[in-house]
Every structure is written in C-alpha cells, then in structure tokens.
C-alpha cells in the first residue's frame, strides 16, 4: 500500500508519546492526526510506503529518524521539457481558433518555435518557466491575447491571473500553527503587494535587499509577525520574486512574471492596504466626535489639522454640512456619523480632492505609470496594466475567487471605488484620448465586467478614434463588448490602418451598424470583407452615412458586393473607393447599380485605373441620379479626348460635378485644393512613380491652361496651384 499525504504543513502533528499515543491496530478508532503520526512512526502498517509533500518551512515537523529520503521538486530543469509543454498546450483543439484545419499545424509549430526562441532570449521569463504553473500562465495568456479567433465576453486578463493564484494558493494558510490563521494570499497582498505598489509608483522593477526589508520588516514588532515572515521567506518568496539575471543587476530581485507586479499592486490598493485620505479623516472624526458638542469652530480646528492647506475652501462647506448631522448626534453610532461626515466632506468639493483616491485616478486610463520629473533620466518601464488590473479585480467574479483566497473585498468598498472611478473615467473620456490610450480605456471597462458602469462611462463617447491600433481578435471583442453596453449612435468610428480582416468585421458588426461615419482605409480588406460590408449596408438597422474604403484591395468582385449594397441601402450619402483597384469592370458594375440608389451624394473613384469609357459611363449615370452631385475621378487613365468629353458633360451636367483635373477649361477647378489634399494624405501609401507621372501631367496641363488665358487673376491662380504641385513633386523626389 502506498499512502500519499499531500500538504503536511496543514496538519499540526505531535510526535511526542505524551501527545499522541501509540496505535498499531488499523481498526482502532483514533483521531486522524494520530493515524498519520503512527503511520510515519512505522508503528501502524509498517509494510506500507509513504510519500509526504510539504512546504519547506514544515519539513522539520517530522523528526528526521522517520524520514528515509528528502527530495525537492524543482519543476522543468530541462528547457526541452518546457518546449514540450508549450507544444502540447498550444496545440490543443481550439488554440488555432475558429475554422482551423490541419493546414494550420505548420503555423502552430512555428508559433511554438518562436515562443521558445523568445524565452531563450528573455532569460528572466525562461528562468521563471521552470515552474510548470508559470508555463501554464504564459500559455494561457498567449492563447488569450493572440491565438483565439473569438473571445468570450466574460474572459479577461485579470481573470487569468486570479485563476492562476487560485491554482497555486487555494485554501493555503501561511502558517497553521499561528493563531492569526492568515491566508497565504492575504499575506502576499499585504507584503509583496506593498513592494509591487511602491515599484509601480516609482517606476521600478528591480528591488534591492533594502527595499525588501523596508516593505517586509519595517512594521514587524512581535515574535509572531517575525515567525510569519520566516515562513513566507522560505515558502513563498521565491515564487513571486527571483534574482535578476540582467548584467549589472545580479544582486537585485525582480518579479518572476513582470505583469504580476502590476496585478499585486492593484490588489494591494483595492484591498485597502493603502488607506485613502477620506478614511484617515473618518478615523480622526470618529475619535473626537464623542468629545465635542455643537461647537462648529472646535470641529473645524480639529479637521484642519488633518487636511492640507488646499482644503481650506472645502472647510467652509462644513458650515453647511455639520449642523445637519450634529442636530441628530444623540443615540447614533459615532463611527457611522464620522464616516458619513467624511464622505459628505469629500463629496462637496470634488475639485479639491484629487488625491482622495489618487492610487486609482492617477492612472485610470492606462497611462504609463506616474509622471517622471523632467530632470530624471528617461527609462522604458511602463505600467499600463496596473489600472486595468484594478478594474478587473473589482469585477464580481474575481472578487468571489479572491474571497476564496482570503482576500475579502466588500461589496460596499467596491461600489464606493467604482463611483469614485466613474467621475474620472467620464471626465477623461470627454477630453478625446489618443488611440492607444483609448484602447487601454476600453480594456479597463472590459476588465471591470460591469455593464451598467460601462454604459454610463461610454454614453458620452460619440467619436471613437483607434487609427493605427493593431486590432487583434481580442481587441475587436473588447470594443464590441464595451460599445454593446449601450445603444447610442456613434458619430465617427476611425479604424484606419488597424489590420482588420473579415473576421474582425464579423466581430464588430453590431458596433458598425450604429456608426454614421466609418473609416476603414488601409486595412487590406478584399472581396470577402466587402461581402460583410454588403451585409452591413443592407441591414435594416444600418445608419452608416459616410463609408471610407480607400487603399484597400477591393477589386472587381468586391465592387460587385458593394454595388449590390448601394442598390438596397438607404443611409449612405458618401462613399470613398479611392485607390481600391476597381478597374473599368468594377466601375461599370457600380454604375449599373447606381440607378437603384436614391440617397448617395458623393462617390470617389479616384486612382482606380479607369479609362475614358468607364469614366464617361459613371458620369452619365451620375447625371441622372436624384441626389448624387459629386464624382471624384482624378488620377485615372483618362486621355485628353476623354477629358474634353468630360468637360463638355460638366458644362451640361444637370447638377453633377466631376472632379477629374485641376483645370476647368481656361480656369482653375474650384476643387483643386480638395484633390491635392487627398493626394497629400495618401502619398505614403501610393505607388510613388505612378503618382509622380500623374503630377507631371497635371503640371503640364496647368502650364498649358495658364498660357491660354489672358486674365491676370486666373494666371495668378494657376501659378499658385503650380507651386503646390511642384512642392509635392519635390517631396517625392
């Protein structure tokens, strides 16, 4: 028989004969601890084999004479085992995403190989991955961030880290012999969390022994506290902190997984280990309320000692507040009154109280840690996950898991913190954030997993600019979840150059329906994506009025789908297909379906290799259209004869304006600046040689028209436009 006794540190065994009597009869009823002690003494079932697992601090609880062999479990000492683990974990069904086939196995192997090589180069994480649980964390995070094609709305990064801690510390007490019975995770949050928080605030990731002593030992006073610290250092310390392997920093410690520093810092704050100013004021008031009467001056003098000078304007509001509560002092709990007064105080003048919840508000939007002093040397340490984790820890699911780990976050505390955050979140969202910070803001709201809070926070968000943010499936899911908490229309959604594909459009479909202006330029959206856009435009709830698809490989097939959308859509007024490789056949298809559309006002078919026939056909159809009054046809392969025919159509255009050239007969076109602005914006993305050829032709046309006119005013206009074209040519060269 083999007995496996897992977690000896949870049992308080007494090997003294006076404490535990001898027992050799398996049928004799004795307490469980007596059974274990007699098994280990080899007095009960001496033929049996026994394996005991324990934390290092409890090893000596079994006298050495009863132990035949000691072994330390070290994890993956061989990097090949790490690699095998990654390969098995990331090759599981579902890791390749939706619609994966056998053909993706090669890609999966490449990803595993890339991961292994990166770990080999990143010695610090490779050193951490000797622990199988850290390998699990790396794989789960990668799977979440990169490999899944669809992300469940309830799955969050904070949830992964919380589950990781539950995996390792569920039910663990730091020292079962200590009367406090403090959970291991609670102790870690108080000690390592403090170190992590101070590191985030001072932008540090490396910590000296002095830093550790300052955080761990400065408040240790009793023998019990010192014993707990010894147990922590022997059992848990190396799990979270490890010696730095970076050259020049050999005698410092870093967090085994960098993001764990930000998670524990967030947990430290949310658990209330860093008391807020409001709480300190509440405590002071609680102590003095029983000693004062209705003398407001006495109360003011006491509170003024607690508050900094900049709170003086707030103190005058106490004259309005205090009588309201002092009149009902008798028979009330003084702690409750103090809490209410402190809360009321900080509610009255929010402007003067930015530091009440400074640990939350200072970086709520994922800005990169605290601001550096201008004289400080720049560094590359950023802590953008800290506020995101803070929001995630407050979510109901993560609070429930942390409760199991002994880290209790009261519902009321979470509610108060959420309300304090809401003010800052809404105020900052109205300012208009840069794209990367806006994405962090959306992640924060997603991690919080509170639809009502999120809805209130983004209701005022009418313009969403995420241009140049690489929109992975995860980011698309986050955007869809956050925007899906409300039904308000979005004035503008800018997803220019965001690496979108067909699946991205599918995930974002409910959001796109509600956007009036939709910018999808520079996303490599082909015919499959155009099929999704067709379904979007034909949806009865679609409100898209301005759609920009410039610089996407739409092609002829894509044009077919867009033409079908034009025929049935009722909301679109502006459509830009600039530089979308339509060709003549694509333009012809769009022209054929244009007659069925009743709302389009502007159509851009510039830079699409259109010849005279296609261009003339489009303009002729546009002339008969009820609302279409502007068609862009510049930078196409239109001959001089075609230009003259288009010019004659322009003279008899029946309301339609064709923007083809910078000249209109012997005058400059009214839209020359529009055309040149479009060219200017797209210069980095277009074929430079072809653009140069077009600009040379435009310049020649301008010079020829200038020579034909005798009007000095017109000559001056020509010279001005020529100078702008020459500047562009200079930039290209």
Overview of the molecule:
With 733 residues, this protein is of the alpha/beta class. Among the domains are: 2-66, no CATH class; 458-659, Alpha-Beta Horseshoe (Leucine-rich repeat, LRR (right-handed beta-alpha superhelix)); 671-732. The chain has 31 helices and 14 strands. The strands form four sheets. The chain has an eight-stranded parallel sheet, covered by helices on one side. The protein has a two-stranded parallel ribbon with strand order 1-2. Helix 23 links the parallel strand 6 and strand 7. The relative contact order is 0.05. Keywords: ATP-binding, Leucine-rich repeat, Nucleotide-binding, Repeat.
List strands and helices in order, with pairings.
Layout: E1 2-6, H1 32-40, E2 49-53, H2 79-90, H3 105-121, H4 123-128, H5 132-147, H6 157-169, H7 184-201, H8 209-216, H9 223-235, H10 237-240, E3 241-243, E4 253-255, H11 258-270, H12 277-288, H13 296-306, H14 312-326, H15 334-348, H16 358-361, H17 385-393, H18 396-404, H19 411-429, H20 435-448, H21 451-458, E5 463-465, H22 473-483, E6 490-494, H23 502-512, E7 515-519, H24 527-538, E8 546-548, H25 555-568, E9 574-576, H26 583-594, E10 602-604, H27 612-624, E11 630-632, H28 640-651, E12 657-659, E13 663-664, E14 667-668, H29 672-682, H30 688-708, H31 712-732
Parallel strand pairs: 1-2, 5-6, 6-7, 7-8, 8-9, 9-10, 10-11, 11-12
Antiparallel strand pairs: 3-4, 13-14
Helix pairs in contact: 2-3, 2-5, 5-6, 6-17, 6-18, 7-8, 7-11, 11-17, 12-13, 12-15, 13-14, 14-15, 17-20, 19-21, 20-22, 22-23, 23-24, 24-25, 25-26, 26-27, 27-28, 29-31, 30-31
């Amino acid at each position: 028989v083999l007995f496996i006794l897992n977690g000896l540190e949870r049992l308080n065994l007494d090997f003294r004969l006076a404490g535990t009597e001898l027992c050799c009869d398996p049928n004799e009823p004795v307490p469980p601890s007596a059974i274990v002690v007699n098994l280990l003494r080899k007095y009960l079932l001496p033929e049996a084999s026994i394996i005991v697992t324990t934390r290092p601090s409890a090893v000596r609880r079994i006298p050495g004479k009863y132990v035949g062999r000691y072994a330390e479990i070290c994890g993956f000492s061989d990097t090949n085992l790490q690699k095998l683990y990654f390969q098995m974990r990331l090759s599981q069904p579902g890791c390749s995403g939706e619609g994966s086939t056998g053909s993706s196995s090669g890609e999966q192997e490449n990803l595993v190989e890339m991961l292994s090589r990166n770990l080999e180069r990143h010695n610090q994480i490779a050193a951490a991955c000797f622990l199988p649980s850290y390998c699990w964390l790396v794989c789960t995070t990668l799977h979440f961030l990169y490999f899944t094609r669809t992300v469940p709305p309830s799955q969050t990064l904070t949830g992964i880290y919380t589950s990781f801690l539950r995996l390792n510390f569920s039910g663990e007490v730091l020292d079962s012999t200590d009367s406090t019975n403090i959970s291991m995770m609670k102790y870690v949050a108080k000690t390592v969390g403090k170190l992590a928080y101070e590191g985030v605030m001072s932008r540090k990731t490396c910590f000296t022994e002095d830093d550790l002593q300052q955080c761990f030992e400065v408040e240790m006073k009793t023998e019990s506290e010192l014993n707990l610290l010894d147990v922590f250092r022997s059992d848990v310390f190396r799990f979270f902190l490890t010696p730095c392997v970076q050259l020049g920093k050999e005698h410092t410690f870093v967090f085994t997984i960098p993001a764990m520093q930000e998670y524990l810092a967030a947990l430290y704050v949310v658990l209330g280990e860093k008391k807020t100013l409001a709480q300190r004021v509440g405590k002071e008031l609680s102590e003095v309320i029983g000693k004062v009467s209705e003398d407001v001056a006495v109360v003011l003098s006491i509170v003024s000692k607690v508050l900094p000078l900049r709170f003086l304007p707030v103190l005058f509001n106490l004259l309005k507040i205090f009588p309201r509560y002092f009149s009902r002092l008798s028979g009330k709990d003084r702690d409750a009154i103090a809490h209410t007064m402190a809360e009321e105080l900080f509610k009255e003048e929010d402007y003067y109280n930015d530091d009440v919840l400074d640990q939350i508000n200072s970086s709520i939007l994922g800005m990169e840690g605290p601001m550096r002093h201008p004289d400080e040397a720049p560094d590359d340490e950023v802590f953008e996950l800290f506020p995101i984790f803070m929001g995630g820890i407050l979510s109901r699911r993560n609070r429930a898991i942390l409760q199991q780990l002994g880290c209790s976050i009261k519902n009321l505390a979470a509610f108060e913190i959420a309300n304090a955050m809401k003010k800052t979140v809404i105020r900052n969202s109205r300012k208009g954030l840069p794209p990367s910070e806006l994405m962090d803001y959306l992640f924060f709201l997603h991690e919080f997993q509170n639809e009502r809070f999120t809805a209130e926070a983004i209701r005022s968000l009418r313009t969403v600019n995420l241009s140049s943010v690489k929109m992975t499936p995860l980011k698309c899911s986050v955007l869809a979840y956050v925007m899906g908490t409300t039904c308000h229309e979005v004035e503008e959604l800018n997803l220019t150059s965001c690496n979108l594909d067909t699946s991205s459009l599918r995930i974002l479909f409910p959001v796109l329906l509600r956007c009036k202006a939709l910018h999808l330029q520079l996303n490599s959206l082909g015919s499959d994506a155009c099929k999704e856009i067709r379904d979007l435009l034909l949806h009865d709830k679609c409100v898209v009025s301005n759609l920009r698809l410039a610089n996407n490989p739409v092609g002829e097939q894509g044009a077919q789908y867009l033409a079908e959308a034009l025929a049935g859509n009722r909301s679109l007024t502006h459509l830009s297909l600039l530089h979308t490789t339509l060709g003549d056949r694509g333009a012809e298809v769009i022209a054929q379906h244009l007659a069925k559309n009743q709302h389009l006002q502007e159509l851009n078919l510039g830079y699409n290799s259109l010849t005279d026939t296609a261009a003339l056909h489009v303009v002729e159809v546009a002339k008969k259209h009820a609302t279409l009054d502007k068609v862009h046809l510049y930078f196409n392969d239109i001959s001089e004869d075609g230009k003259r025919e288009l010019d004659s159509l322009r003279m008899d255009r029946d309301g339609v304006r064709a923007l083809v050239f910078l000249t209109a007969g012997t005058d400059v076109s009214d839209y020359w600046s529009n055309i040149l602005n479009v060219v200017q914006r797209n210069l980095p993305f277009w074929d430079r040689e072809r653009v140069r050829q077009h600009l040379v032709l435009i310049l020649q046309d301008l010079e020829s028209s200038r020579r034909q006119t005798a009007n000095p005013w017109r000559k001056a206009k020509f010279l001005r436009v020529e100078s702008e074209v020459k500047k562009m040519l200079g930039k290209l060269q």
